[in-house]
Amino acid sequence: MQIQGYFDLQFEPLKEAFAELFADPQERGAGLCVQVGGETVIDVWAGTADKDGEQAWHSDTILNLFSCTKPFAAVAALQLVDEGRLDLDAPVARYWPEFAAAGKELVTPRQLFSHRAGLPALRELLPPEALYDWARMTAALAAEQPWWTPGEDHGYAAITYGWLTGELLQRIEGRGPGESIVARIAKPLGLDFHVGLADSEFERVAHIARKKGDLGDAAAQRLLKCMMSEPTAMSTRAFTNPPSILTSTNKPEWRRMQQPAANGHGNARALAGFYAGLLDGRLLPAELLNEMTREHACGEDRTLLTRTRLGLGCMLDQAEVANATYGMGRKAFGHPGAGGSVGFADPEREVAFGFVTNSLGPYVLMDPRTQKLARVLDQCL
Q: Listing from the earlier edge strand, what are the strands of the sheet with 194-195?
């Protein structure tokens, strides 16, 4: 497999580890970018981007990054905190009055961002097209009763996070959440990152497909078993209501939507650039970055049925949990995306890391591909 791009010779073992991914015939296309101390030490890509495996992955190929999008929304909100326009511990209903319904009058933005508000899913079944109807989804969530007493437990809001945090941003800023994220983060840092993609960009978006035959680890199998056998379980509803959630990634209407839980589009360079901007203080003052990356929840996740450790809009490292470590330092923070893409920072080593793939693996948290690359990177440093 021909590897395109740039790498510093010190990081040649990392380039080789990236090339080894393509020994798997199901690996279609991927990109890897790492900055150390603000300097790019590797920015490589390889493979194919289209459905039929005929179009090469290019320097400017972008793809749906799924939940790698979540920290971008959190940072936009924390900038509002810095500006005195959002209070993390005030009721969400102060900004979004309808949200106070069904016992949510005291739920705070902090609880939304740390997945402790009790709203990872909707009970009432919605039709597939509801996924693209912002007003309908936010109204449904405003009316929803929490699945547990808010603040007392945590459960990952895989997709509802986007409507909850996005509506909060929209109520305060008066513009779409994707517009806020691009204006506040992507434009100032020069990142090729979009939440709500223009049709003119579609031709450079990689087609995403699942790998076949790999059942993943115990956590993946546990969640799959729940989804197959318990249609009304909270975990099942979180991923299948509306039923279009898991089948929409390559659709034009999904790309156009501003859904900051799961439909950011960008590349490895954009992820690494975002985390570099967090580490060097361009995006948030130190005290707010500390707040974002402080432990807010830890333990068995009621949605994912595995251990998660959460900050505000980010996942924190669990070195002792095989599927929940980035593979570097204990202070690492960032976010995996469904199927294998990941962006994270290791502040102790000044590392900003982005890996993207259009070959989706079955893992619930960290994909072994990215963990291996991170461990090789650690050895190079």
A: 63-64, 264-266, 194-195
Alpha helix segments (H runs only) across 83-133: 109-113
Which ranges in 232-311 belong to alpha helices (H)?
234-240, 252-256, 268-279, 286-292
Whole-number percent of the chain with pLDDT over 90: 96
* CA gap 325, 322 in Å, rounded: 6
pLDDT score at 248? 93
**Which whole number is the average pLDDT over 51-79?**
97
Cis peptide before 109 (omega within 30 of 0): no
User: Dihedral of CA 367/323/312/99: which sign?
Assistant: positive
Beta strand 351-357 pairing with 63-64: unpaired
Close Cβ partners of 138 (under 8 Å, ≥ 6 residues apart): 163, 166, 167
In contact, 96 and 112? CB cutoff 8 Å = no
Given a contact cutoff of 8 angstroms between Cβ atoms, the answer to whether 208 and 360 are in contact is: yes
Question: What are the structural domains of the chain?
Answer: 4-67+195-219+253-380 (3.40.710.10)
Sign of CA dihedral 166, 195, 263, 21: negative
Mean pLDDT of the chain: 97
Residue 277 one-letter amino acid: G
pLDDT at 336 over 90: yes
Residue with tokens 């579609």: 202
Structure tokens at 182: 């691009």
- pLDDT value at residue 225: 94
pLDDT 10s digits, 73-107: 999 999 999 999 999 999 999 999 999 999 999 99
CA distance 272 to 288: 20
Instruction: Give the confidence band of 120 by pLDDT, cuts at 50, 70, 90.
Output: very high
Distance CA 81, CA 356 (A): 30
CB 374 within 8 A of CB 353: yes
What's the whole-model pTM score?
0.98
- Here the tokens at position 110 are 């902090």
Task: Give the three-state DSSP class for 336.
Answer: strand
Q: What average pLDDT does the segment 44-61 reach?
A: 96
Beta bridge partners of 44: 5, 32
What are the structure tokens assigned to 3, written together?
Answer: 């590897």
Distance from the Cα of residue 82 to its chain's centroid: 23
